[in-house]
Amino acid sequence: MPREIHVRNPRTGTPDHTIVAAGDDEIIAAAGALRARQSAWAAQPVERRAEALRAFGDAVTRHRDELVARLETDTGRRWVSQLEVDSVLTSIERTCRYAEAAFAPEDPAPTADPDVHVTGDLVPYPVVAVISPWNFPFQLALIDAVPALLAGSAVLLKPSEVTPRFIPVLRACVAEVEELAGVLTVVEGDGATGATMVAVADAVCFTGSVRTGRAVGRAAAEHFIPAFLELGGKDPAIVTASADLDAASSAILWGSTINSGHSCMSIERVYVDRAVVEEFTEALVAKAEQVELAYPDIGDGQIGPIISDAQVDVIREQLEEAVAKGAVIRTGGTIQYLGGGAYLRPTVLTGVDHSMRVMREETFGPIIPIMPFDGEDEAVTLANDTEFGLSAAVFAATAEQAAPVAHRLEAGAVSVNDVCLTGMFPEAEKNSFKSSGLGASRMGPPSVRRFLRRRALLMRGSAGIRPWYYDGTPTQTEER
Ligand code: NAD
């Protein structure tokens, strides 16, 4: 019996799209077909795979308008949808270069024995399952798929069931590149679909919440496959007394509210030196009040609807709990229903502390809680008082003044005198710390290298095999 999933439109609040979740048999068959075709794909020189991925980029360019239109409906965002598609195009070219470098020929390396040299080859995981979330549906569907394919793996991809309208267009792009069509299969489905995928893959790349990431990690351990997990965050920003408060408040407003706060690397906690906290807060509130909703026209304003219905509840509950415990709403604070979509203006909170969910759990909405600190040690302690470790930001008069604080933060990427730079500079290798993730970097050259296992060839030369035992025993050479 096919299992239908109804998809809600974030601007109207009504379900206007349906997908059919791939059944277990379909997934098992898809993985089998991918595995059968993968060895020929991997046997080609990397340049041929890069050619296929560049041809895929051309197909995406041809379908750009259609993709953007679907993503607009998926997310209620216009220019971010354009940005998503364009960023995938630039990432293909960059990742092709990483892949070509990964497979560059190498000279045999000497060992302690002059007669033995080491070389090797790189063996991709045959089938990589890629499971992605709803906040950047297109970009995050391909962020792991493209490097895995370039490494020589075949990919079984499942985007989020919350934002799946772009999937048919993505499939059309794949179908236009014959070499790729056999090694990249895109399925529709939800958590149950994803769980089956983990059971049939040789490695899994998962982007999503910590809660699901832990389940995927456990399932991967059960099947004894590696799991590359990119999970949630609760990113702190520290504003020291020497910082340019105008620049810091602008950057933090943007970093907290862009994409309606639906970014893993959103700034979700702000710690400001007590000497400047009121001045900073006033500047931030004044700017926040100038931000407009993308309503009634999607091209209006800057803040789109809250995409996922479930997230509306999370955001509301965190706000209500914070206010009940004494937080003060300085601006925003009310979820508005407009045309059926749920919107929240940038919301600045003061009077917060770490007993509140809004300071401990991921919000994934445009809320900016501000807390004062006394001294650098307290700022660092507060910023590190979290289960997450995705990224962070530090502001000071100069980057050199901010760097010592940045070095003390338990996070995989720290923007200095700016925010969210890790999202804009994917060449920077980074790991996710603590509960925010597991596994090698998806940024920089390791993005490709992590899908390759190294097979070492230890080559004995002409001197022949030495005796291994004490004098008097026959040598291995003599035995033969
Ligand atoms: P989610 O964990 O609910 O779902 C993510 C994906 O996992 C979906 O495709 C879903 O169908 C699938 N899934 C659900 N249960 C599964 C299971 N048991 N086995 C396999 N797959 C399963 O996350 P979401 O709400 O879609 O996305 C938001 C989260 O993603 C936030 O926490 C955000 O911080 C995080 N995120 C992280 C990054 C990063 O790079 N670290 C980037 C973007 C988003």
TrEMBL record:
<comment type="similarity">
    <text>Belongs to the aldehyde dehydrogenase family.</text>
</comment>
<feature type="active site">
    <location>
        <position position="230"/>
    </location>
</feature>
<dbReference type="InterPro" id="IPR016163">
    <property type="entry name" value="Ald_DH_C"/>
</dbReference>
<dbReference type="Pfam" id="PF00171">
    <property type="entry name" value="Aldedh"/>
</dbReference>
<dbReference type="InterPro" id="IPR016161">
    <property type="entry name" value="Ald_DH/histidinol_DH"/>
</dbReference>
<feature type="domain" description="Aldehyde dehydrogenase">
    <location>
        <begin position="4"/>
        <end position="454"/>
    </location>
</feature>
<keyword id="KW-0560">Oxidoreductase</keyword>
<dbReference type="InterPro" id="IPR015590">
    <property type="entry name" value="Aldehyde_DH_dom"/>
</dbReference>
<dbReference type="InterPro" id="IPR029510">
    <property type="entry name" value="Ald_DH_CS_GLU"/>
</dbReference>
<dbReference type="InterPro" id="IPR016162">
    <property type="entry name" value="Ald_DH_N"/>
</dbReference>
<protein>
    <submittedName>
        <fullName>Aldehyde dehydrogenase family protein</fullName>
    </submittedName>
</protein>
